[in-house]
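Handout, section B. The chain below has 651 residues.
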Amino acid sequence: MAKAKAQPPARQSVLDGDGWLFEVLSLIAAAGFLGAMGGLIVRYDGQNASDWPYAVTLNAFVAVLSLAAKACVMFAVCASLSQWKWILYAGAGHILIDFERIDSASRGPLGSAALLVTTWKGGLVVRLGAIVTLLALALDPFTQQIIQLRQDLVFTPAEPYAQNTRIGASAYYWDGNVIKDNSTPLTNGTDGSLNTYETSTPPYMQAAVLDGLSRSMSQLQAQTPYSCPTADCRWPVFNSLAVCSRCSNTTSQISRIPGNSIDLYRAFAAQYDGRGMLGNNATAFRLPTGQFIANMDGYMEDTTGSNGAPPCLMSASGTGIASKTLSLQESNTLIWSTNILAIAPPHNDELNMTTPVGGKWPDMPLVSNECGLYWCVNQYESAVSNNTLSERVTEQETTLDMPKDGFAWPFDGLQFNQTVVDTGIWPGQIGLCDTKQEGGFGCLNVSIEAVLSLNNYFQTLLATDATPMNDTAGLGPNALHNEGGLIDGRFVPTALAGIWTDAKQDLQATFEALALSVTNAIRSSAMGTQDTASTVTGSTEGTIGRTQTLFDMQWQWMALHCTVFVLAIVFLLLTVTHPGRNRAPLWKSSALAILACGANAAEVLDGAETMPQIRDRAKKGEVVLFDGTVAGQEREHDVDQKLLGSGAVKP
């Protein structure tokens, strides 16, 4: 074993390398560069790539910061690795080849890889430095993965397109006319007069009602009024005047009229060319409102042909007065209600469809349903996606506000003609008000002209005096009446064909379509108006969506940067705090220091002329470079062999 022949120099100043100030500063600088990287990534994550203000790309900025952080980290790691070759050979012998292995590891990844594949009994701390060096190789490709781009839909305020980014919403609906036709003084001893008015409904509203009777829900939903300059738009939640529907099954209220109802049958069905009578007995069924259905007893397939269907398959009653309905008496904004009393067609379970009515009267099942339309306020959550509008609709709870008290809704003077009869003073408008005291939508209003004209239009369209009064006057104290029906294949009035058919008795779906179509018309009327009283806040405050290229930061790729930085700190601390540091000078990677200790290894390498010879002798020769004292201060003479063990064979 070669013995130490020289003492190390006295302690140097910090600037001469005696200390770890520069390594600590380099790690602080690395932390700053990594922080700057993180700041850039946070700042521009999700931002439009076209908004990047500089000629040099964001990716280039991040790459430079990553490279600077890597350089600072590797400076500290390489210095720490270099110091381990002095710690190892101070105060104890060690094979000389390990000196070269550690020195090579401190100079780059190739030496670090060679250090890791060498079979040692110890050396965990030195191996940690080699691992950090190799991990740093992957920092650059990992950096390139941090900044990605994605195509995404971005919504921005639509101020430049405000007139083109709207959706129908009405705070006040006034379309409709009520014109005074006649006035007659009252003769019952009271002041006032009997006034007769004619009403007219706007053509677009009439068309909306007919659309609701003839079109499907999907077709009507496509008619919802909106304007969006791009394929995607959004609006804040808003409220709008609307028409809603409500339906109830009233079958349980059907009762059989006792006795022979031949007179009732003649009054209703026979006047519409009903089939020839088979006798003098008829049976009728009624509802509490006076609506009924009647047919001759014994009508069946063998005697009537055409599926055995009796002449009267369905009767209808309609009213705009809530007190005259079966299930809508609590509605104070009723527009129109229709009740259908009909023979229920049998259902074919195998085909999952109804089959034509057949059988024998009166032993046929009956069904009764009532649906109504009423003024309401809906809350809308609207969005256009890929040129398709979708809305979430929620009916709001409201209270009725009428400027004058004591008025029924709409008014009991509605008659079976195109006039409205009134004996009092009408309020100018009806208010549907939010039940919240604060933070609500206030009141949304309907003019009395709009109320009466729409009510009267439904009356003229869906109701007629199907049982003349003189034909039913003698039928008892509880007057029986119908306002329509399906009689011997004829719909009376004809618009009832859009309400009900014997093959598809879905009154609820029809009224939902009617409500949607009329609501669309009301919302459309507010789209082009400049009257702020009818404009709902939010309906003109849409945001438009455009496809943009955005920065998409992949944070997981920064995990390696953080790992390398933390391991570098740990490695430096283990090096600085290891007990062996006191036996060796801080020479780190100094080439001059290596030359100064060359004589100590001369005995091992003496006579070796080629690199294979030098390596072979270095693997076998063991040297001690220092005796364990620095600048005259006594040190302990035990090198921790657990840090970097030697498997060399002593000569």
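Note. The first strand starts at residue 94 and ends at 95. Compare this with the example in section A.
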